[in-house]
Description:
The structure holds 2 protein chains of 2 kinds.
Chain A: H1 7-30, E1 34-35, H2 37-53, E2 68-71, H3 77-86, H4 92-98, H5 128-141, E3 148-153, H6 160-171, E4 177-183, H7 192-195, H8 201-207, E5 211-215, H9 221-231, E6 243-248, H10 256-259, E7 267-268, H11 274-291, H12 296-302
Chain B: E1 14-15, H1 17-31, E2 35-39, H2 48-56, E3 60-62, H3 67-79, E4 83-89, H4 90-96, H5 98-107, E5 113-117, H6 135-140, E6 146-148, H7 153-163, E7 170-173, E8 179-180, E9 195-198, E10 203-207, H8 211-224, E11 229-233, E12 236-238, H9 242-251, E13 255-262, H10 267-276, E14 287-292, H11 303-309, H12 314-326
Parallel strand pairs in B: 2-3, 2-4, 4-5, 5-7, 6-7, 10-11, 10-13, 13-14
Antiparallel strand pairs in B: 1-8, 6-12, 9-11
Helix pairs in contact in B: 1-2, 1-7, 3-5, 8-12
Amino acid sequence: MAISASENDIRKLQQKAAQLRHMLVDLVDSAGSSHIGGPLSACDIVTALFYRFMNFSRERADDQDRDRFVLSKGHNGDLLYCVFADMGFYSYEELLREFKKTGGRWGEHPNRLYNPGFECSTGSLGHGLPLALGMAMAAKLDKRNSRIYCLVGDGELQEGSNWEAIMCAAQHSFGNLVLIVDKNGAQGTHLVSDLCDDSNLAQRIEDFGWEVHTVQDGNDMFQICEALERLYADEGAVYGRPKCLILQTVKGKGVDFMEADPANWHAGSFRNGRLERAHGSIEVWLERELKKSAPMRHREMEG
Amino acid sequence: MAVVTRENDPAREMGSARFAANDMLFELARQNENVVVMTCDNSQEGTPLYRFSQEFGERFIDTGIAEQNTVGMAAGLALSGKKVFCQSFASFLATRAIEYIFLDAAYNHAPVVFMGTHSGVTAPVSGPTHFALMDIAYMRTMPNLTVIVPSDPCISAKVMAQSIQWPEPIYLRLPKGVEPLVYLGDVDVQIGKSILARPGKDVTLIGCGPMVYHCLCAAKRLAAEGVDARVIDMHTVKPIDKEAILCAARETKGIVTSEDHMITGGLGSAVAETVSADVVGGIRVPVIRLGIPDCFPGQCENAEEIYERCMCDKNAIYVAAKAILEGRSL
């Protein structure tokens, strides 16, 4: 399938993802320590959504027709804080000053009252998907064209409420709902497979009546964009089955020492010289991504 | 507005706060196209919610036996501008889905109206799994959440009507079936303001839900002995009407509370907290709290039998009031 994102578009998104990674690393360092492995694994899909696919911007943040993003894994709020700073909701300097500080507006988990850009306050796992279902139903009732994207972690899917929601969404054909699983394979203290084998996750969700797409490299911008475009390539898709995108990602993606030890980088700090190394590693990662040759279809489009 | 109560009504007319709330749902939905109603497998043919589904189609959703998802969805709908009425058994809605009410609705300021039905022991044959006896305690600890326990159909209907404009979530606690009507004619109902069901100067009886009628019956018996008991219908348990409680504490010799809920954490606790916090006023009055004691009350054919066995019924209220007036412990 030919996709509309040109190679140049993809390169810009890769650069944006690197910029957000640099911001994220400095943000975590400003607080001493914070969640970092998950935000880095989710960084590329979040970049693609906010900078290319979603009908959402600072100006449209209150528009009823906007697309909505629900961060079910609220402990990755730091990534979205950087996105919303970059989109102009507030300055990055304010964020650095107040993140996880006493009396500051930005905490470890997002609060929609104090943190512009968020649709809802999250933090306890297993809440985002039910909330997103409600938003999807409201959009359908109002005959609005908005789509609802909900980002969950793979460990989070151990919460039973997700499966209540997965059954309900299929029953009511919430085709405007996209469940995005950041399948980085590691949860708070363990590898996901150590606690609850989910190797057949795609099959499970498909068996519940969903349309499921797996992205083999969930940190590859070409593959992400292709998968996101495929979701609504068919105009009727919004009325069809709910969609699920399973992204095989790497926890800590872009920072070499985290990628090498993902189970230990759910949260952490950049003390002891790690900060410089992390920034350097992100640059190396970006160079490598930019040099990755585009799949044939992109090269054809570029002419 | 003068309040006329029915404890002297020989006809003992009955009514249902739950049916009245559901009747109001139809009116609200006809007036406001943003009204959405949700339930968890409670819309079989013949029920008010079934009729609602027939009239309003896609504005009704029965999400199945899945309270967590239902409450989360309700909050998501509300955050998208819908006025959501989410109805299920109080025991499951307010206990199983408690974190979803706490975070998705209360923390997120999502103005959902949670209608917890079959409250207290009003489904007496179902037994402890279906009793809702901790819900007031749970709900009243939540910021942003208003807790209402109507004693009479006119209160549940009026609260429903007012809830459309209410900016925060509400927990409306509704008994299963038909109960004795409390009021004759119209009553002024304001969320957060108690109703003086009977004026009195000797002792104060405060109830909510079905126990308001029991308080009135106890007051009638006390009146026959020359005791002038005040009866307060505390339909809003949170935010509680502190002024009415403190006036009662100042003007009468003590307070008896009764509720179809565990003694711990409910209406009685809220009243006692209010009285005990009155440092400046210097109030020193006894507060006797009646309700379900620290046990699992077993199944029963009739809720009244449980109230009697658990000693929170009209007789127990009478005995507690006498104890206060005679200055002895129960």
